[in-house]
């Protein structure tokens, strides 16, 4: 599948090296020091990392949608607007939603829980299994996402996902943000802000927004690093996976559900 | 046994070209519908993120399932050695190819990115049953094409007739297993997660395929003014009866199995009792129209010699089968997934826990019907160009059927 | 397809002739769109002749690396193309690179090759705002956490040029 360039590898290394030197040396504007992201990133993401999220549902506030808004902004999801001739009902069923707020009531105890629902980043994702072209993929670091270059829009992954985490783009998109290329006819879902994370960021957009609003319900981090905040929190509190009976070993965990 | 003569389908020009023109018109409407859907995006359809596969998929799956079943007549002739079926083998192979082409056309034209068909053909994820189906479908065309040649070329093709017949037979079993498994392997949705899906699709294919075969055969002979013998018709008719009964039986077992699993009570209640349109389609469409009435028409002594009864029964089997696929595909998606067991969903912007609504748009219907028209056009053109239909299908004399 | 009028055909010939001339002299200056950043620079990420022939392969190779392996500090990035090759209109707004006569469109239209990239990718450079910063950029650089970027587009371009020089 992947085409190899006729570009000699040395050129690329040389370029990267020069970039690194120039970048680390040059203080281009006062007060801004440039550093190289992912030094030695030729290998790309590694399986020594597994990105995950822990959601403390006790802290998730009723009626708050800061995470949803932040996700929409980060990924340019709200750039897609309702086609003029579409009904509100259908638009609501068709518009992409990477993350959504859900309010639940326990049938036994009547306890009400609020939580954000998104791609659960399974270790064994059913969407990846069923995808005919391999466009649905799980990266080495555990992020499950769609390679839209090979997505043919068959929607089989949406049939297979037990969490209804995926959306299909039903109409033309006039504009995108650079970090989130997306277009009509492909399937998409939460990718844990992969471009951000690859750039060296340690938080996702939804986590930042939740933090900013003072709820701190979302904790993102490396579940394989024993010293990370998420690893410690997972050890301390009992958490659960949604639909744990399917044994998909999700990367998104919830406490107090 | 007297030598069977095959001849191209011939009928008067106005009749033939008139029919073709009608089919071409339907296909053109389908193309317009496709353009409409692909140009604007799928928002113009009734499909959504809740019901992701709609009417086109119902048509496509129905045609693909029927395609593999249509080959059965040929298989009975060559694999199981039924002399009464052997002369029908060529037409059976042709019909199978036509139906599959029609079904696949619909499936491909409904993709979000049909322009990337080449990606689907060159990039495979072998864990996906869908990817296997791409191979199974392409292989089916090749194998049935060769099989057809072996049946028609008596000099050079004859030695390959048996082996190709066997290959085609096993291939079509694999193909329908693959189609059924598209649903059977979906653990997420309660209506689908069942191993019985694959064998049920096979038996459905027997029934729909034969019904399609009987209708097209009768239509072709009526078109060309040729005759079909009573004995042969009765054989086909009885076989259809058995298949229709078998589909009902598998449906029963499928629902009984589900009723045994507590977890699946609510999805069963949805299909059998309170699913609104899906419940109606199941009982009225699938069971009564597609099962009970055809069985009555096929087995009642009152209609023992009625050609009309056979034709109507076949048509009803197809209509019932269509509803059956509709209930499986759309009904299975409309029923909410149990994402949060033990919880009641108070609010969600994504219809969690709510029955999804689906109203097919006209464009989807036009695309689906165009699929059937594509199949019929292929068959009509090919039977006029190739010697697939026996000159007459009068009953053989006594003693010739050994 | 658009019907090509006599004028357009003539213009096509002219552009084609221009390209032929450029290819022979191996001088890169004027194939790029006037007023784009690229117009002020010596070379692209590779020699012009190389880019003309092989840019699609470079992009395809690196898209695989960035999407599947998360390598974002790639050399051949599509947003890099856009950042450099987009030009502004009279109001100072960026024109899409796929607009008529713009860098991507002009050549792809002439060679009748469909550019599928921009069905999904952004067609204009994204102005740097604080909300979208962390995603690294085509130079393989990122800004220190929490700092609002104080680099203007021009400064980035100068840095780019500087790296290529030495």
From TrEMBL, chain A:
Question: Taxonomically, which superkingdom?
Answer: Bacteria
InterPro entries, per this entry? Answer: 4Fe4S_Fe-S-bd (IPR017896), 4Fe4S_Fe_S_CS (IPR017900), DsrO-like (IPR054822), ET_IronSulfur_Cluster-Binding (IPR050954), TAT_signal (IPR006311)
Which SUPFAM superfamilies does the annotation name? Answer: 4Fe-4S ferredoxins
**Whose protein is this, by species?**
Solemya velesiana gill symbiont
Which Pfam family, giving just one, matches this sequence? Answer: Fer4_11
> Which GO terms of the molecular function aspect are on file?
4 iron, 4 sulfur cluster binding; metal ion binding
Q: Which UniProt keywords apply?
A: 4Fe-4S, Iron, Iron-sulfur, Metal-binding
The record lists the lineage as:
Bacteria, Pseudomonadati, Pseudomonadota, Gammaproteobacteria, sulfur-oxidizing symbionts
Is the keyword Cell division assigned to this protein? no
Q: Which residues form the 4Fe-4S ferredoxin-type domain?
A: 51-82, 142-171
Q: Under what name is this protein listed?
A: 4Fe-4S ferredoxin
NCBIfam families named in the record:
DsrO
From TrEMBL, chain B:
Record the organism: Solemya velesiana gill symbiont
* Entry-linked InterPro entries: Electron_transfer_protein, NrfD-like
Similarity comment: Belongs to the NrfD family.
Q: What is this protein called?
A: Molybdopterin oxidoreductase
Which cellular compartments is it found in?
Cell membrane
Instruction: Tell me which PANTHER family the record gives.
Output: PROTEIN NRFD (PTHR34856:SF2)
For the keyword Zinc, the answer is no
Q: Which residues cross the membrane?
A: 16-37, 57-79, 91-109, 129-149, 169-188, 200-224, 236-257, 277-298, 310-335, 355-381
Q: How does it sit in the membrane?
A: Multi-pass membrane protein
Q: Tell me which GO cellular component terms the UniProt record holds.
A: plasma membrane
Which keywords has UniProt assigned to this entry?
Cell membrane, Membrane, Transmembrane, Transmembrane helix
UniProtKB/TrEMBL annotation, chain C:
Give UniProt keywords alphabetically: Signal
* InterPro entries reported in the protein's UniProt record: Multihaem_cyt_sf
> Where would one find the signal peptide in this protein?
1-28
Protein name from the UniProt record = Uncharacterized protein
